[in-house]
Amino acid sequence: MSSTDYISRLTAGFNSLSPDAKANALKVKSVFQFSLPNAGEFYVDLKEGKIEKGKHGKADITITMKDEDFVQLCEGKTTGQKAFMAGKLKVKGNMMLAMKLDPVLKQLLAKSKL
């Protein structure tokens, strides 16, 4: 699967969350901006409850990484922390939010099994 496929799966997963699961995800109350060379910019808005292409005006954290590293993160072959320590994930903004990323991705991808 490509990074674009995983972005679509994240969106589908978020849209299919139960009201309780969505409320739980929104407790993070943060906006994660992603920047991938091939897939481009997208953000996971856990304040408003949406995932969209493009740039968010007020992201709490911006994560920059290669598409193949994003795919490995989505496939569970690495974690955000491991990718950061290996220099494969760059963070700008509230670094502590990066720790909340793995559980959110796992939850959303689990809801969108193809």
Brief sketch in words of this structure:
The chain is of the alpha+beta class and 114 residues long. The protein has 5 helices and 5 strands.
Helix count equals 5
Distance separating the two termini: 11 Å
Q: What fraction, in percent, of the residue positions are helical?
A: 25-40%
Kindly state the number of beta strands. Answer: 5
Give me the strand/helix succession.
HHEEEEHHEH
Q: How much of the polypeptide forms β-strand, as a percent range?
A: 15-25%
Strand order, sheet with most strands: 3-2-1-4-5
Biggest sheet details = 5 strands, mixed
Mean pLDDT over all positions: 90
Rg result? 13 Å
- Stretches where pLDDT is under 50 for at least 5 consecutive residues are none
Shape: globular
Structural class: alpha+beta
Explain what the structure shows.
- The structure is a single chain.
- The protein has helices at residues 3-15, 19-25, 67-74, 80-85, 101-110, and strands at residues 31-36, 40-45, 50-53, 61-65, 89-93.
- The protein has 114 residues and is of the alpha+beta class.
- It is 39% helix and 23% strand.
- The longest helix is centred in the first third of the chain and has 13 residues, at 3-15.
- It starts with a helix and ends with a helix.
- The chain is globular.
- The chain contains 5 helices and 5 strands; from the N terminus they run ααββββααβα.
- Strands 3-2-1-4-5 form a 5-stranded mixed sheet.
- α1 (3-15) packs across α5 (101-110).
Tags for this model:
114 residues; alpha+beta; 5-stranded mixed β-sheet; 5 strands; globular
List the helices and strands and how they pair.
Blueprint: H1 3-15, H2 19-25, E1 31-36, E2 40-45, E3 50-53, E4 61-65, H3 67-74, H4 80-85, E5 89-93, H5 101-110
Parallel strand pairs: 1-4
Antiparallel strand pairs: 1-2, 2-3, 4-5
Helix pairs in contact: 1-5
